[in-house]
């Protein structure tokens, strides 16, 4: 291990680093619009709308065509494969349209599952087969970053050592393959909020998981300046009886990150993990106001927490499109402020702003 | 590994964290005066002075009684065991003398290197046996931080995976034991400058070593906010024909650290590793001027680079005391 074999040229490194920095520029975060067809089934069911390709296209169009007020708030959009090739009413391919608005195009690349035998129901892993070819194709089709979600859970015996090591390793392989194809990997080791564990336990597990992730990234020679991290915030379990304040969540989260995430990583884009829209913004804001020194950008990569109100307002009806867009724009602006530590909650709830978006055992 | 078992109380953490921050307070660094008896022998031989206990005491006294302005530059002093129990001419124990100047007392606790069988003369470091008891005693005797040096080298086949893993692990055990006894551990994974390797090679190896060190510290539940790191700067090998500039050294060093050292670590105190006094200062300066964001203090823990001139100025003659102290003060300020 004492010799370095070139993996990326200086130009490749620069390209990756530039993309990553652009996505997490001050005040900007990510719209995660990469729900799989199966996930969209559940969402559409909630608003009594049929889960057709056309309805999925119409819905994503509402988000993507929101007016320029969202431009300073959104650095990147994560797509699902189908959506990357769908078009606006005017006939422009979504990926090109988003790029044209100055936002980076991202793509969810995890696929297939392989369960972890002999574990206490620990979550299946996604396969790496064919990833390089797919990344190369996605790059040609306009994508500049990718997302791969690994999932761990907290119970009396989990996450096990095996789950931590395996997930860290597969994330590192994925990251390495992406970079070879000019794609910035978002590394997502999500620790589910399911359970009744307290904040301390969540912090402890998060630190162990992230330490393993960054050791694996180092072992696999991943260029950290050209990656992003998408972790859970450190929160107590959903069923924990003690409720913690945003400041406590912020302190626990920032402490965990300071102990594990090297300063070379340009940005940390939190997942919302079932928090309500309003909580997700308030917590992100508290994180940015935390007095501990924070050497990376701290912003959002929200799916449900950006879309819940918009989806509810749309309810599958064309005439509601504008109103739905307004809901989305509002959340985007709020989260942009939160990413700067400047969000003041007006208490305005929007149509779904304070509804918990928790889904037990959330899988895509 | 899913449950946390209390290692340190909040009070213990608070104490460790504030000691660490005091040592690397802005503008301050560490005087490494922990040369073993054998090493002092080599130093004293160069100035034709006999390696007696008294001469060693006298030289350290010279350093410790230099004028009080050094308190602005020196946050901590690392002692060798013998020195911790020596006194000034006036009978003041050295630890008391140093503490009264507002400087933190440190102690070298390792017992030297041991060869790893089946490697190309690579080593690990000994001293874990009875370390807990020794730390507890040193704490009583005035020490607040400790130092343990691991050594790696660069060659075609080195450092091997084994050397990296073994040294990282022993450093983590040492750190964990120190913290249990109220001592801030300085973690020192020195990669020797011997060889003709390039700057890039040194950077690569440094990154691999530090990544392993911090994984081990995490595995061993070490409280990072109550530790300090003492690494080599990233430089080309001493026999490398191409000499990098201070700016290149700085960029390579800071990049390597940014990729491996968590922001929770309060300070990084570079070893001088045989650099000249002037080079050590120039390089440290360039490091602090490097435009990349640096979330830890970046300072010195110098032995030879602070003492070389002082040693020659003294040359074993009491009459040279003033000159020697002035030389030391000057280097410290730089």
UniProtKB/TrEMBL annotation, chain B:
Source organism per entry reads Polyodon spathula (North American paddlefish)
Its top-level enzyme class, in one word, is lyase
Cross-referenced PROSITE patterns: ALDOLASE_CLASS_I (PS00158)
Which family, according to the similarity comment?
Belongs to the class I fructose-bisphosphate aldolase family.
Q: Which CDD domains match?
A: FBP_aldolase_I_a
Q: Could you tell me the gene encoding this protein?
A: Aldob
Please give the Gene3D superfamilies that the UniProt record associates with this protein: Aldolase class I
The lineage is: Eukaryota, Metazoa, Chordata, Craniata, Vertebrata
- Swiss-Prot/TrEMBL keywords: Glycolysis, Lyase, Schiff base
- Per its UniProt entry, which superkingdom is the organism in? Eukaryota
Q: In which pathway does it act?
A: Carbohydrate degradation; glycolysis; D-glyceraldehyde 3-phosphate and glycerone phosphate from D-glucose: step 4/4
* Pfam families tied to this protein: Glycolytic
Q: Which reaction does it catalyse?
A: beta-D-fructose 1,6-bisphosphate = D-glyceraldehyde 3-phosphate + dihydroxyacetone phosphate
What EC number(s) would the UniProt record show? 4.1.2.13
NCBIfam families assigned to the protein according to its UniProt record, in alphabetical order: FrucBisAld_I
Name the chain's protein: Fructose-bisphosphate aldolase
SUPFAM superfamilies recorded for this chain?
A: Aldolase (SSF51569)
């Amino acid at each position: 291990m004492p010799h370095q074999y070139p993996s990326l040229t200086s130009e490749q490194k620069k390209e990756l680093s530039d993309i990553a920095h652009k996505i997490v520029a001050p005040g900007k975060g990510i719209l995660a619009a990469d729900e799989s067809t199966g996930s969209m089934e559940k969402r559409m069911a909630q608003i009594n709308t049929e889960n057709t390709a056309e309805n999925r296209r119409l819905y994503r169009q509402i988000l993507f065509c929101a007016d320029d007020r969202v431009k300073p708030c959104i650095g990147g959009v994560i797509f699902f494969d189908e959506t990357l090739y769908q078009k606006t009413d005017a006939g422009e391919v979504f990926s090109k349209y988003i790029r044209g608005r100055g936002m980076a195009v991202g793509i969810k690349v995890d696929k297939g599952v392989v369960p972890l035998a002999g574990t206490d129901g620990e979550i299946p892993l996604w396969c790496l087969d064919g990833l390089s070819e797919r990344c190369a194709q996605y790059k040609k089709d306009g994508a500049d970053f990718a997302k791969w979600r690994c999932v761990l859970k907290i119970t009396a015996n989990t996450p096990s050592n095996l789950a931590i090591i395996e997930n860290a390793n597969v994330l590192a392989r994925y990251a390495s393959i992406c970079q070879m194809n000019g794609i910035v990997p978002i590394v997502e080791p999500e620790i589910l909020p399911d359970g009744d564990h307290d904040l301390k336990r969540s912090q402890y597990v998060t630190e162990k998981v992230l330490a393993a992730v960054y050791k694996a990234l180092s072992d696999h020679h991943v260029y950290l300046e050209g990656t992003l991290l998408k972790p859970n915030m450190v929160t107590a379990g959903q069923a924990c009886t003690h409720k913690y304040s945003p400041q406590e969540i912020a302190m626990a989260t920032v402490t965990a990150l300071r102990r594990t995430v090297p300063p070379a990583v340009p940005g940390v884009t939190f997942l919302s993990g079932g928090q309500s829209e309003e909580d997700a913004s308030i917590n992100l804001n508290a994180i940015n106001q935390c007095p501990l020194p924070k050497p990376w950008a701290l912003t959002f990569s929200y799916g449900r927490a950006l879309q819940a109100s918009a989806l509810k307002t749309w309810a599958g009806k064309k005439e509601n499109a504008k109103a739905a867009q307004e809901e989305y724009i509002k959340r985007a602006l709020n989260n942009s402020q939160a990413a700067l530590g400047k969000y003041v909650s007006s208490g305005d709830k929007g149509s779904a702003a304070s509804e918990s978006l928790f889904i037990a055992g959330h899988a895509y | 590994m899913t449950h946390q078992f209390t290692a340190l109380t909040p009070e213990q953490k608070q104490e460790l964290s504030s000691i660490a921050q005091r040592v690397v307070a802005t503008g301050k660094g560490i005087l490494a005066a922990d040369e073993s008896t054998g090493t002092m022998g080599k130093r004293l031989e160069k100035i034709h002075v006999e390696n007696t206990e008294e001469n060693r005491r006298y030289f350290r006294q010279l350093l410790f009684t230099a004028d009080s302005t050094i308190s602005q530059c020196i946050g901590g002093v690392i002692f060798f065991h013998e020195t911790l129990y020596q006194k000034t001419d006036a009978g003041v124990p050295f630890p008391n003398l140093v503490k009264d100047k507002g400087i933190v007392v440190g102690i070298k606790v390792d017992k030297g290197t041991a060869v790893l069988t089946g490697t190309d003369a690579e080593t690990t470091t000994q001293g874990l046996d009875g370390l807990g008891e020794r730390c507890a005693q040193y704490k009583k005797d005035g020490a607040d931080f400790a130092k343990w040096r691991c050594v790696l080298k660069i060659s075609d086949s080195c450092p091997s995976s084994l050397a990296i893993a073994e040294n990282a692990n022993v450093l983590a055990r040492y750190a964990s034991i120190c913290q249990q006894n109220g001592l801030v551990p300085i973690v020192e994974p020195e990669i020797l400058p011997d060889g003709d390797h390039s700057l890039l090679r040194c950077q690569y190896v440094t990154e691999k070593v530090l990544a392993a060190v911090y994984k081990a510290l995490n595995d061993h539940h070490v409280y990072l906010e109550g530790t300090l790191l003492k690494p080599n700067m990233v430089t080309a090998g001493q026999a490398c024909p191409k000499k990098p500039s201070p700016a290149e050294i700085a960029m390579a060093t800071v990049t390597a650290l940014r990729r491996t050292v968590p922001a929770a670590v309060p300070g990084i105190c570079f070893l001088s590793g045989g650099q000249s006094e002037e080079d050590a200062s120039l390089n440290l300066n360039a490091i602090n001027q490097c435009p990349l964001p640096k979330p830890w203090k970046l300072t010195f823990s110098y032995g030879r680079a602070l003492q070389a001139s002082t040693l020659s100025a003294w040359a074993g003659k009491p009459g040279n005391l003033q000159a020697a102290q002035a030389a030391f003060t000057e280097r410290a300020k730089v």
